[in-house]
Amino acid sequence: MLYYALVFLLVSIVAAIFGFGGIAIASAGIAKILFFVFIVLFLVSLITHAARRV
Fold first, then answer.
1. Are 17 and 50 in contact, with CB atoms under 8 Å apart?
2. Residue 19 CB neighbour total at 10 angstroms
3. Do 5 and 38 form a contact (C-beta atoms < 8 A)?
4. Which end of the chain offers a freer environment for a tag, N or C, measured as fewer CB atoms within 10 Å?
């Protein structure tokens, strides 16, 4: 999931360089959402892993 967030971020940067503002904004929004989903799933995974060790 982090890979896709980085891909959308790169698409956003390239689109912004070439002047495609709408695509850049949409790609940045998707990248932001995927990054936050990744963070939430990562934290859930850490908590689950810590709970199993106890």
1. no
2. 8
3. yes
4. C
